[in-house]
Amino acid sequence: MALLLWLGSQLSTYWNGISILGIFLTVFTLLFDFMKRRKKWNHYPPGPTSLPFIGTMLHIDFRNPHLSFNQLRKKFGNVFHLQNCWTNVVVLNGYKTVKEALVHRSEDFADRPYTPVYEHLGYGSKSEGIAIARYGHVWKELRKFTLSTLRNFGMGKKSLEKRVTEEAGFLCSAVGSEEGRPFDPRFLVNNAVCNVICTTIYGERFDYGDKTFKRLLHLFEKFLNEETGFLPQLLNVVPILLRIPGVPQKVFRGQKEFMDFIDVLVHKHMESWNPAHIRDFTDAFLKEMQKGKVAEENGFNYNNLRLVTADLFGAGSETTSTTLRWAFLYMLLHPEIQNKVQAEIDKVIGRERSPTMEDQVNMPYTNAVIHEVQRYGDVIPLGLPHMTYRDIEFQGFFIPKGTTVITNLTSVLKDEAVWEKPNQFYPEHFLDVNGQFVKREAFMPFSAGRRVCLGEQLARMELFIFFTTLLQKFTFVLPEDQPRPREDGYFAFSRSPYPYLLRAVPR
């Protein structure tokens, strides 16, 4: 009996100790959380109530964040704050606000937040690629080199236009081989667009039936899907979770496999590289790496080669192929608009000659339709996150240096103060009273300012040539046994149409 009483007293003492420790840890954690989220500045933008640890993350649907931001905008205005755990975020909404930030205050918003979830891919302080690299000397050197090299390989020149036209011919042959049967255009369109950028970066074009290339496209889609949702956001703002063994490999398996594929292409180049014969962008980067310490200080290293070419692959493929899939979907849903485009093609180009960029100026309606596809399709709703480069005053608010800034491009492309029918597919947004094309300042599908998309010029060329070439040769119709396709999209970094089938009827 005495033994039982002694054991009971020992257990009681033990549990009392555990309780005290638990209370202490709880108080310490709450105090730590309070100190991390405490704001010492006045005139900070308004926002929803922040909860302990998770901040305002419950206010956001990370599968459709742009829709959540539109709702919060109605309550808090064009500039509001969020808090992802202990990371301060400011969201900018509406054409005037976003333009002021990205164009008139470009350097203030030119930085990027660090992205811990990419560390397992080689991303780090000395290798950040271009798209999500911190603003500074290395980023400027890499961007200048990239733009210069892409121009050397035809960007904005007839040589690249010829390559796009040739690929459009291959795409037409592939579509024609379907012989009017229902098919999903996704893979064929992705293949065509990716071939253009792959030829420029890696000097290699893939046949439409190539299994290796199909795997590359599948891995890239998986890469984008893995960035969507609550968990990737949580891992970015609480990066200590990434130190748990196996977490990055399990959560971001597709990203690792995609970069492994990039490694294969780069190693293939290194084995056959000849400094006297530069075949493509990868060769040019390898040559730059040979310039020693100065080149290394400017960011020319192996990891950056992998990351920069991966950035270019994404910039030169995903947005364009997705936009084209929206374009063909809208032609299915609006056959009267498709008829007008084809009438203009027949009048200006005819049925035999291949379209060229010189035709664009004489085709205002087709040009307006393509721009409206980009506006209404809203392919990159939020762009890439920015970060304030210094402490700033913006529209009466104080935003400290190092604050993550999200530009809600959806709120620009569908700003009710700018567009006549923001929530309808309406090509007349880009036409004047005389039917001539008008460029609108609020047209920002590629973002704007210092961090504008590197692939914009190539994308414009591809959209015009691929779109006009296919509508010159085919009329797209909805298969008789298929329901009307959904006009809304799903979000996975880019906003894509749900899968649909179409028939391509030869003209």
Description:
It holds the Pfam family p450. Keywords: Heme, Iron, Membrane, Metal-binding, Monooxygenase, Oxidoreductase, Transmembrane, Transmembrane helix. InterPro entries: Cyt_P450, Cyt_P450_CS, Cyt_P450_E_grp-I, Cyt_P450_E_grp-I_CYP2D-like, Cyt_P450_sf, Cytochrome_P450_fam2. The protein has about 500 residues and is of the alpha+beta class. The protein has one domain: Orthogonal Bundle (Cytochrome p450). Helices cover about 50% and strands about 10% of the residues. It contains 18 helices and ten strands. It has helices at about 1-35, 65-75, 95-105, 135-150, 160-175, 185-200, 210-225, 230-235, 245-250, 255-270, 280-290, 295, 300-315, 320-335, 335-350, 365-375, 410-415, 455-475, and strands at about 80-85, 85-95, 385, 390-395, 395-400, 405-410, 475, 490, 495, 505. The strands form four sheets. It has a four-stranded mixed β-sheet with strand order 1-2-6-3, sandwiched between helices. A hairpin with a 2-residue loop joins strand 4 and strand 5. Helix 5 (about 160-175) packs across helix 18 (about 455-475). It is globular. It starts with a helix and ends with a strand.
